[in-house]
Amino acid sequence: MCCECDCECRPLGWLLGLPFAFLSLIVSVVGILIWIVGLLLSCICPCCLCVTVAVELAIELVKAPLHVMRWFTSQIPC
User: In the chain, what percentage of residues exceed pLDDT 70?
Assistant: First the structure.
């Protein structure tokens, strides 16, 4: 809160977060694979609760690059 402007554009945070976003993008690809397998398993046996938990975890892994970039840009002042 030390900056005079209340801007949302923080290019330095975006640039610093780029390598970590790339790593989380790889994790999100793994999440997509887990999500597809989990959906197939939940169609075969919908009573299995652990498959549902795995699918929800996979969805969070897919969202990981967005969370990483938002966190990095919020840590750097204007």
Answer: 81
